[in-house]
Write a structure and sequence with these properties.
heterodimer; A: 377 residues; 10-stranded mixed sheet; 6-stranded antiparallel sheet; 24 strands; globular; B: 927 residues; mainly beta; 6-stranded mixed sheet; 8% helix; elongated
Chain lengths: 377, 927
């Protein structure tokens, strides 16, 4: 909140008096590349469990995560069970679905990783807490005027009443929604420029789209005189996308954590994503639970999480509000000639009009046609 | 006859002064003078030595001179030959020897001779001759005038005499504080106190005396000390733009004073330094001195010798100012024209001062003109200011009122961007000073201070903060040299924040700090070798940590009352400045601090052996009003010493120990307007620190240059730091977020000043380091995994040049060059995913550095015509800040944008900033 304020201060000082200037800046950092990243959980839900191993990337190479292959990965519990995971895809290690190790509430688990270079990493022992159930997940129509004037659904969660006090929650969400393109398809053509008739014209109109919600939500009830927690705000879905236009499904994974695991997530939340301004706090390295036994100077990133898990999916229908998503508009007159080159063929046309953004006609540009198994209309 | 002789003498002295003959040593006569007749003896001595005899020709001089030893001084010869006769020998500094019959020359002039204005009121038995007065009028720089202190008759059976009096400004009659009276032969001297009074004890004899002040021209006198007397001095003020010293950061007395790590700036001297947005800012000018840094330009807070900003204290005529910035730090909150000078103590603190570890910024308010009404006004792109001053009763009491206000709202209205149009950034400040002498022995001074800021940012957040303060000081002089000073001080700092940036989380927050202080100081000067200060002070702190409450009914904020805090900090001290020998002086101070943290207050008890966390609270303890919750007490030892190797070189060393009982709750990189002061309590221990320093000071070419080097090592215990991610704004139990660590800083500072000439200024270079270590027993009690890290403001290399060149009598050009290593920064270094959520990994704390900082500023100052008689005088100043338009990084920040983390460098002064300011005042330049 302070951060935001400060930006505005700048704006004000900048424009009114001083010719300030913002330019791109890429720091040169060393020694943080190619660190082992552990991303995996074991829960009370039935296996197989997946551990993703990758190498950390520079912040400039955000999306290109490098899988860490050929590692030896073992999960063991505190009652003597032990399993070596199989690398099914590069960097993705799975337990056996039938005979593999099983997460049991109250047991403690740890992971052992040996890299191809012979470096040995081990996590601390993590207990699977008894999962607390979800009583309800529900949307509420809300108007917000924060970043812009927007309407949409604010989702809330109510937990079931747990048996114990001092509970730590983590909610991780993903969403699936049905959407429709702005225009039907009447024609299509291939590089030979022969135009074909497309039928039925709405067969690429309606798709499903699945996205992981990149925000996570946490709550600690330590020292609170309550057991059940209600109306915990989760994500807000606004009217600036097509998400709420037809039907929307929110999938809520509620993890019940140990205190130490909770502190890891809490730290991530506290640091936030925007950093470095003068009126922000110092960011810091978050303490995780993976220890490099070979070289203590070279840390590993990520967390091997053991947690109680319950999942709840809800569906909502279209919102009775005005949507503000950008609508495809016809190209201005005179219409440009049809392009003869493209990354993707065929090229679809609305009547004889071409859209640069093929997503205006073809929903598979961003979604998929097949109804997901979990989908209920 | 006496009268005639005196007339003759006066005339002769006048001539001698003009010819400026100096007669330093008494002539030595050999046996060849033996057995000469008196008349022949006189002729011969006058031929061979620069002496003249004056005697009445009717006197009987029919004897022969007898010289007993192989060589004898003239004094001895005269003594031996005349002592058995009814004749008296009197000589002056210029080699004139007067021989009178029956009685000695009393040097008592008719009262009509005391017609020099500055002497009229007080001088009774001192002698500054008419000749001198005339002489001063004609030629001030060359030659030396003579002062006869007392009379031979009064001092007949004594070996010592005390000379005391006032040093005043010739132009307006105000007292000069801290003026230096330096006896060259003894290599010692004294300074005037807060009332402009001095006192010095001397053996009878002849001395060369220099009298000067940081804002006053030096005057030289020859003293002939006979007996106790009052002698007042009136000094010309330095006319900085016209005369030599423009940029003056304490003159040659740096070599002589026993304090180390001390700097002094005067408003007059800094007014030609290039300005940011046209504002003269004496406090920000300290950033050009060695050892003073800030986190970034335009930020609040100063970091002196590796200490965080809350270890400084700012006093304005004894009123502590707890927030010294306007517009979040762009300007200092002190009306520039109303400040006369700033003394900065970086290392040796006199024992009078306690409570802040790193530095004291001691600002003195200008004293109102005692002679006539004066008005001045100025305008810059940001502010307009007015100053009025004058006597209530001529030469007795005076007033001064200075006001400054922004009119930037008016500028903002021209900007047609909604977010800007709705923003406001206004500030005001006002200073008054009233000086009321009750009588010769008692003087009263009353000053007030006010500053306020009203900042509103794009209709979302509004900050209002203000300082209000006042002080009353009563000086009582005992036997004209001891000074009893009693003061009461009140200061209040408060703010209000109204934040509506998040819709259902909008809130308001307030804060208030009151400082109520009484102090007494007795300065006792038993001999000229000792200046002893004994005193005590007691501060009552009343803090209201405020209330965090919803701003309106839409807000879902649960109100939190953060509670009040009370504390009393007291100290008793004794400080002795001891001039052991002319070459060696030593200052020792001992201060004993007692601090009590008082109720009413609710505190919490935590599980024994467990960390202080909310989860571990087991009990709530209610303390009654004024009940002692916790007390701390400790001694502070202060030592410093100066030794002259020769006339031009001195060595100094110092040890400084301080305890601090109030600190700032801040964990942002720069100070933010919502940071709060907090008292040490039952969990948070007071900070303490020691600093060891040593220095080499020298002057070259007759005070033309001064070169100094200082080294220091500072160790601070119980430094207040915060747990990672602590929220300090709304935390009713701050002890759960506080960690206490250790700060070590060290450095070496080099300073070369050119004090005189058409070109003057300074160059300094500082190498310094400041490292923090927070390494508690538990993982959450460590910062940076228990490894030391560079402080946020650690800038190892700093280099400053301040230069001023006088083009003509009316124009001068000034320039600054500023270089510093970039400040440390924690960078995001890697990205990884957990459960499909991208997470940023950061480097170790302050592992990297921002790019270096470099800036050149320029200013041209122009004075109106220099006619001595005119109604008003005006001056222009034109400044260019960041002449090269270099994009110096102010901050580097990172934003997640879509799937990318983008880094940005923000420069707030990305191009040269031009500003004009215009000042006008009544009278001519000199007034």
């Amino acid at each position: 909140m302070k951060t935001k304020v400060y930006l505005v201060v700048f704006l004000f000082i900048t424009i009114c008096v001083l010719p300030a200037c913002v330019k791109d800046f890429q720091p040169t950092t060393k020694s943080y590349d190619e660190l082992l990243v552990v991303d995996g959980n074991i829960t009370n839900e039935k296996g197989p469990y997946t551990i993703n191993l990758s190498k950390s990337t520079k912040i400039t190479q955000f999306s290109s995560s490098k899988p860490y292959s050929k590692c030896r990965v073992e999960i063991m519990d505190n009652v003597g069970n032990k399993e070596e995971l199989k690398e099914t895809l590069a960097g993705i290690y799975k337990t056996d679905s039938i005979n593999g190790i099983q997460g049991v509430v109250g047991r403690k688990y740890k992971i052992k990783i040996t890299t191809p270079d012979g470096e040995l990493y081990e996590s601390t022992e993590e207990e699977i807490k008894k999962p607390i159930g979800i009583q309800a997940v529900y949307p509420e129509l809300q108007h917000k005027n924060d970043t812009k004037d927007r309407n949409g659904y604010q989702f809330y969660v109510d937990t079931e009443t747990p048996a114990t006090v001092n509970n730590y929650y983590l909610w991780i969400l993903d969403k699936t929604y049905k959407f429709k393109t702005d225009f039907p398809i009447h024609h299509y053509y291939y590089p030979d420029m022969k135009v074909y008739f497309f039928y039925p014209s709405d067969s690429l109109s309606i798709c499903y789209k699945h996205e992981n919600i990149q925000e996570f939500f946490i709550l600690s009830t330590a020292n609170k005189n309550q057991l059940q927690t209600t109306r915990i705000p989760l994500c807000y879905e606004d009217n600036y996308t097509k998400a709420l236009t037809i039907r929307y499904s929110l999938n809520v994974k509620q993890y019940t954590l140990t205190e130490s695991t909770y502190k890891y997530w809490e730290a991530i939340k506290k640091i936030g994503s925007k950093q470095g301004e003068l009126y922000t706090q110092q960011p810091y390295q978050i303490k995780n639970n993976i220890i490099n036994l070979t070289n203590s100077q070279k840390p590993a990133l990520g967390y091997f999480m053991a947690a109680g898990l319950v999942v709840k999916r809800i569906f909502t229908d279209a919102l009775p509000i005005t949507y503000q998503y950008p609508i495809c508009s016809l190209p201005p007159l005179p219409f440009p000639p049809l392009p003869s080159t493209s990354d993707k063929w065929p090229i679809y046309l609305f009547h004889d009009f071409y859209f640069d953004d093929q997503g205006c006609l073809d929903c598979t540009v961003s979604g998929f046609l097949k109804k997901p198994d979990y989908w209920i209309d | 006859m006496d009268y005639q002789i005196q007339c003759k003498i006066n005339f002769i002295i006048f001539i001698c002064c003009l010819t400026a003959t100096s007669f330093a040593q008494t002539p030595i006569l050999d046996k060849s003078y033996d057995n000469l007749k008196w008349n022949d003896f006189v002729v011969r001595v006058e031929q061979n030595f620069p002496v003249h005899f004056y005697y009445s020709s009717d006197s009987v001089f029919n004897f022969k001179i007898q010289i007993n030893a192989p060589t004898e001084s003239l004094d001895i010869v005269l003594e031996n030959n005349l002592s058995n006769k009814p004749m008296y020998v009197t000589k002056d500094k210029n080699g004139n020897i007067f021989i009178t019959q029956n009685s000695p020359i009393s040097f008592k002039l008719p009262s009509s001779f005391f017609n020099s204005q500055e002497l009229k009121s007080n001088v009774k038995d001192s002698i500054i001759t008419k000749n001198e007065t005339q002489y001063l009028k004609t030629k001030n720089e060359i030659g030396t005038s003579i002062i006869y202190v007392g009379t031979a008759k009064n001092g007949a059976y004594k070996t010592e005499a005390t000379m005391s009096g006032y040093v005043t400004n010739k132009s307006n009659g105000t007292k000069v504080i801290g003026a230096i009276l330096y006896i060259e032969e003894l290599k010692t001297g004294t300074t005037t106190d807060a009332g402009g009074f001095y006192s010095i004890k001397l053996k009878k004899g002849n001395y060369s005396l220099k009298v000067y002040g940081s804002e006053n021209k030096e005057k030289k006198y020859n003293l002939e000390v006979f007996s106790d007397a009052k002698v007042n001095f009136a000094l010309d003020e330095k006319l900085n733009a016209l005369n030599e010293v423009v940029v003056f950061s304490e003159g040659n007395n740096n070599i002589a004073r026993s304090l180390i790590g001390y700097e002094k700036l005067t408003t007059k001297s800094v007014k030609n330094i290039p300005k940011m947005m046209g504002e003269v800012d004496i406090v920000k000018t300290t950033l050009l001195l060695p050892g003073v840094q800030s986190v970034g330009e335009g930020t609040a807070g100063f970091n002196v010798r590796g200490s965080p900003a809350d270890q400084n204290i700012f006093y304005l005529n004894q009123v502590p100012v707890y927030n010294t910035s306007h517009l979040l730090g762009f300007f200092s909150a002190f009306t520039p024209n109303a400040i006369s000078e700033l003394a900065l103590y970086k290392s040796s603190f006199p024992a009078q001062f306690g409570g802040h570890l790193s530095s004291i910024f001691d600002l003195t308010i200008k004293q109102g003109d005692l002679k006539k009404f004066n008005f001045q006004a100025g305008i810059s792109p940001v502010t307009a200011n007015v100053l009025v001053e004058g006597p209530f009763k001529k030469e007795k009491s005076s007033y001064l009122i200075g006001l400054r206000s922004t009119y930037s709202d008016w500028v903002l209205n021209f900007i047609n961007v909604p977010a800007i149009k709705d923003s406001r950034g206004g500030f005001n400040d006002a200073i008054t000073n009233f000086s009321v002498p009750i009588n010769n022995k008692n003087r009263l001074n009353f000053s007030t201070y006010y500053s306020s800021d009203n900042i509103k940012l794009a209709s979302l957040t509004a900050y209002d903060y203000q300082n209000v303060g006042a002080s009353i000081k009563w000086n009582h002089f005992v036997k004209q040299k001891h000074n009893l000073e009693f003061s009461t001080v009140y200061s209040d700092y408060s703010y209000n924040e109204r934040n509506s940036s998040v819709d259902n989380a909008n809130y308001k927050l307030n804060y208030d700090l009151q400082h109520i202080e009484a102090k007494v100081n007795f300065r006792y000067i038993p001999t000229e070798k000792h200046t002893i200060d004994i005193g005590a002070n007691s501060i009552l702190y009343l803090l209201n940590q405020g209330r965090y409450a919803p701003l309106n009914s839409q807000s879902l904020i649960v109100p939190i009352t953060l509670g009040r805090e009370q504390g009393v900090e007291s100290g008793v001290y004794i400080n002795d400045e001891w001039k052991i020998t002319p070459l060696l002086s030593f200052t020792a101070g001992l201060r004993y601090n007692l601090y009590k943290y008082l109720g009413p207050k609710t505190t919490y008890a935590y599980k024994p052996g467990e960390p202080l966390e909310i989860d571990n609270i087991i009990d709530t303890v209610k303390h009654a009003k004024n009940a002692q919750i916790k007390s701390y007490h400790a001694p502070d030892l202060r030592l410093s010493s100066r030794y002259f190797i020769n006339e031009f070189i001195s060595l100094k060393a110092g040890f400084n120990q301080v305890h601090q009982y109030i600190f700032m709750l801040t964990n942002t990189i720069a100070l933010s307007p919502t940071d709060k002061w907090k008292l040490a309590d039952n969990y948070i221990k007071p900070m303490s620190g020691e600093q060891y320093s040593a220095g080499f000071f020298s002057e070259l070419k007759k005070e033309m240059y001064e070169f100094s080097t200082e080294v220091y090592y500072k160790n601070i215990h119980h430094l207040v730091e915060y747990k990672d991610g602590a929220n300090l704004i709304v935390n009713p139990v701050p002890e759960t977020d506080v960690l206490q660590g250790n700060l070590k800083s060290y450095g070496i500072e080099f300073m070369l000043k050119k004090l005189k000439g058409n070109f003057n200024g300074w160059i300094n270079y500082t190498y310094s380091k400041a490292n923090v270590l927070v390494n508690g027993a538990r993982p959450e009690e460590k910062i940076n995994f228990g490894n030391p890290y560079a402080a946020n403001y650690d800038k190892p290399h700093a280099f400053n040049i301040v230069g001023n060149y006088k083009l003509s009598r009316r124009f001068n050009v000034s320039a600054n060059v500023v270089y510093a290593t970039g400040r440390p920064i924690t960078y995001p270094t890697a990205i990884y995913y957990q459960n499909n959520i991208p997470i940023i990994h950061y480097s170790k704390r302050n592992e990297y550095r921002m790019p270096d900082y470099f800036r050149i500023d320029l200013s041209i100052n122009m004075e109106g015509n220099l006619k001595s008689k005119k109604f008003a005088h005006s001056s222009w100043s034109f400044s260019v800040y960041n002449l090269l338009g270099r994009n110096n990084p102010y901050s580097i920040y990172f934003k997640q944008e879509g799937n990318l983390i983008n880094g940005y460098q923000l420069s707030i002064f990305g191009s040269p900033i031009l500003s004009f300011s215009y000042n006008i005042k009544l009278g001519s330049y000199e007034n």
